[in-house]
Structures are given as structure tokens and as C-alpha cells.
Amino acid sequence: MKIFNSSLLMILLISIFACNSNSSNADSVEAVDGQHKANVKEVLQANAYTYLLVEESSDKFWIACTKQDFSIGQTVYFMEGLPMENFESKDLNKTFDLVYFINQISLEPIPVTQADMTAPHGMVKEAVKKAVQVEKAEGGITLGDLFANPEKYKGQTVTIRGEVVKYNEAIMGKNWIHIQDGTGNENAFDLTLTTSAVVKVGDIVTFKGTINLNKDFGAGYVYEVIMEESELVSK
Fold this sequence. Notes:
- This protein folds into two domains: 13-115, CATH 2.40.50; 143-234, CATH 2.40.50.140.
- It is elongated and about 60 Å long.
- The chain has three helices and 14 strands.
- It is mostly beta strands.
- Strand 7 and strand 8 form a beta hairpin.
- It has an eight-stranded mixed sheet with strand order 2-9-6-3-4-5-8-7, with no helix packed on it. A five-stranded mixed β-barrel has the order 10-11-12-14-13.
């Protein structure tokens, strides 16, 4: 495979990806450069993801995006993806030697205006502040405390309680969770954490984990603040 940058680091986020089937009139908009055009050869549907075996310029390879409908024989357009080697889909009971997780995919050429709105995980759209009010965990801190002085907590193990507002399971062997507690400011109120715990959106959870800053997973996947290796204390 030569169409993708092999130096891109593998991640989840997938979490976390915003995979959109955008439709546009190719005659009236400028198509973004660097997108790929391929023919669908096989479709596998899992619980949360759709896996497509596609062919582009005689090369066949697997891509994946959030679950949606595709048919064999369709032509799809997509932007560069993140490679994941030996990726196991437990839903399908299948291990892919290599699969590219796609950030944006469409049945028509992707216009520049739509491609510009697409960003990697951790930067995908802007988080929406929910109307939640969660009491601080005993002995813990609030998200407002964390975001007000992140350097103070860098490398520290902290306890935080919040409401799950987003949950992506089994990406790179981890579950990726976004929580909010009603604190913070308009620019910093949503925390991403990684864990092996299973939760669902709407759960009030307490996690204990290590705070890291400016975590760069490559290809623009940067988290200014993230809690890693988090353990579920209660829910």
C-alpha cells in the first residue's frame, strides 16, 4: 500500500471518529485534493463499525468507519486514514492484517468545504457542553480544577467524577470515554480518558487515573489534557 503515510501512528479513537456519508454535487463544488476513490468489493457490518474491502488502482485493502450502509459495487471517496495492523474485531471474530480507519467517507467527491470541517480524533468537531451537574468525588477534583491548572496535575493520579457523554469501545485495546461534570469554562469542560472499564452514555462514573498533557499520538491526534489507564471506582 502506497497511498497512505506509513509513518502515521495507530490509534482510536476512534472513538471516536466522525465518519460522515456526505453527499454533494461534484459539478458545483471544488473537490478536495488528496482524497481517494475506490470501488467496494466486500462489506462487513459490526455493531459499531462498517468494514469495507475496497479496490483503488488495482490495490485492495480494508477501510473502516462508523456503521452505515454500503453496497458491493459502489464507488466511495475518502480521506487518508490511520493504519492499524493486526486489528481484531471481536464482533466479527476476525483479525485484519491491516485496516485503515477513515475519518470521512462519501458516495460523491468530498468538497473542500466539508473536508475542512473534518479533523482527527481529539479534534473532531467541538465538544458540546451538556447541562450536567455532578458532585465532586470524595478526595477527588473537578474538571474545573483540572483545566484551571493542568500543570499542577501533570503525571499525577487523580480521582474525577462525571457523566459519560461519549463512549467508544475496544480501540487499540482500550475504551475511550468523554466525561463532563458541569464545571470548567466554555473552552475546557470535557475530559477524555482511557480505560478497560465498560460504561454507557449517561452513566455517572468515578474514575481514578493519571493525567498527561499534550499527548501526541501522531498525525495531529493531540490531547491537551487526557487521563490514561483509568480505573473505574464507582458508577
